[in-house]
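U., I forgot to send this yesterday:
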Amino acid sequence: MAVILIVEDEVFIRQNAECIIEDMGHNTLVAGDRCEAFLHLSAPRHIDALFVDIRLRELAFGGYDVANQAIKLRPELRVLYTSGRTLTDNMIDLFVDGGQFIQKPYSPAQLDFSFGKLLH
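Result:
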């Protein structure tokens, strides 16, 4: 069982991801923006993975900014990016080392598979 921080600014998508990930047996922390994410990341709680939307409205580079700053605080953190846009080489170039990607909309089985790869 892992602890996964979900950073997604769309409420319905965030709640859906939270339900799917909890059904997979993991614990979740949720954030709707960068500030909420860093409240969780700054707390003395263990977090195994960051599940972050690439296109957060509040930031120029959205989820990339969150992931890059999160890795500075927690170098062991694993990152799974998501987006409704098709993955391009330019997007991959902005991933933190070891970062992976899952395309929206994703099914519970796809998300389970992606976290299985990411966490092992």
